[in-house]
Amino acid sequence: MAHELRFHRSIPDDLVEAIDYYEQISPTLADAFRANVDRRLDDIVETPELFPFDLQPVRFAKIEKFPYLIFFTVKPGFIAILAIVHGASDPEKWRSRI
Fold this sequence. Notes:
Distance between the termini: 23 Å
Order of helices and strands: EHHEEEH
CATH superfamily: RelE-like
CATH topology: YaeB-like fold
Number of strands: 4
Number of helices: 3
Helix content: 25-40%
Strand content: 25-35%
Largest sheet: 4 strands, mixed
């Protein structure tokens, strides 16, 4: 069952930070990052229950080929995307978004 995605207001900042980093290395790498984020978001929409919990009720999905994670919660009728951050970043950076 597909769910609607709702993004935390900080998600654009999360993505700009990551994309800018990869853009400095290679525009092709930045495009690959964007595409992998989109694919993982599609996976989350289709089957959110397949992803493990970080701390309940927050689940996470690793972005393929990149050291980034998408943190999200499943709510009645929608999925709240809380953060898209580097896997080594301080969790306090996004936990206040719950």
